Please model this.
Amino acid sequence: MRIAIHGKSFDANLIQVITKAFDYFKQSEADLILSSEFRKILNESGIHLDLPVYTPGDSLQHIDFMFTLGGDGTILEALTHVGSNEIPIVGVNIGRLGFLATIRLDELELALKTIESENYTIEKRTLLRMDDPDGLFQGSPFALNDFTILKSETSSMITVHTYVDDAFLNSYWADGLIISTPTGSTGYSLSCGGPLVIPNSHNFIINPVSPHNLNVRPMIVRDDSVLRFEVDSRGENVLVTLDSRSVTVPASTNFLVRKEEFSACLVKFEGYHHFETLRQKLYWGRDARN
Model:
């Protein structure tokens, strides 16, 4: 078994825990490879491992699993490393929220044994793609959570003229517009009043950010739709994001968003259910008064 490992910076009080995690990896007798970014973080933390490294952009076709040590943002970053290879990802949560990174560090040893016994499932999650002829996102013009257009340089609103399969939908006067996948419905879209959508519902959510017209509401469309956006702005530029990556582009730029041809593959173990994650992370059924 060949495992790639990616992670982000961590607190000093987690050094022993991270070291223990790599003990588990070594016990699995898997062939390990580190991302160059994570290797640097480990070295700076005093954890020196004699393991090969890969650089983002390298081909990972030979890898069987991608493990991430961090939170949901680490998984989103690792997806840009995996690209179209659809390598199964195991998210080990050392962050706080973790809708995607559902394995705790103390469950890592069991997770590795479970994978070795092939007692797991692969959950495919829809990605969205922004047509990117200018290479704004360095060969990774896709997102698991969302695509957004946001105002930049000015406090004035922007107007986003929105078309679905070339049919005019609406002109959103707002601070921005979020196009979310079902996976991303628990992210930025949720904080802007968007609905929770079950994974693999085959939908996109169109959700304005602070709309001027209060009767405008989030809208759900099929994920085989092609979405087109034209922006009017008093400023020269707007901010465009794919997950946690962002670029500033001229406001005159038009955008096309559609479903990506490949998927994100997340490893799920026995006992996992999306509803359970929602209840835990959103504290459903808990009353602070009790």
